Amino acid sequence: MINRLVDKKAHLMIDKSRSHQALVKNYAAHDYVNHGIKEFVRGDAHVNTTESFGALLERTKQGVFHHLSELHLPRYLDEISFRWNHRIPDKEIIKRGKKKLIYKPMPVIDMLSS
């Protein structure tokens, strides 16, 4: 599925896992972190965005959809992607010397008008 949906010019950021090694050969660039040795960030490389999106997907599945059928999976992912891309930066914090943005969901009424 990743090969069908992700642009070949993409710069992937992945966990150094054997399952990802063959995948990255198809893309313009990649960086990785090694969670196996407790490395979570190296320079600009991290997988926090992917993990946050996955958490949103899981929360939506449990709280709204309850079941994601394979037939309609692209529709579910489109809706979740839309919500992700229309979040509102709420506040900025500094954690361990790095700036971090905290987002909040855009109200549904505002989403419908965008």
Structural overview:
- By secondary structure, the protein is α+β, with helices and mostly antiparallel strands.
- The chain is built from five helices and four strands, in the order αβαβααββα.
- The chain has helices at residues 2-5, 18-24, 48-65, 73-85, 108-113; strands at 11-15, 29-33, 88-95, 98-104.
- The chain has a two-stranded parallel sheet with strand order 1-2. It has a two-stranded antiparallel ribbon with strand order 3-4.
- Helix 2 links the parallel strand 1 (11-15) and strand 2.
- Helix 3 (48-65) crosses helix 4 (73-85).
- The chain is globular.
Overall pLDDT, averaged?
84
**Number of DSSP strand runs:** 4
H-E order: HEHEHHEEH
Residue windows where pLDDT falls under 50 for at least 5 positions: none
The level of helicity is 40-55%
Strand order of the biggest β-sheet: 1-2
Distance N terminus to C terminus? 29 Å
Q: How large is the radius of gyration?
A: 16 Å
> What characterizes the major β-sheet?
2 strands, parallel
Proportion of residues in extended strands: 15-25%
Alpha plus pi helix count: 5
* Shape summary: globular
Secondary-structure content class: alpha+beta
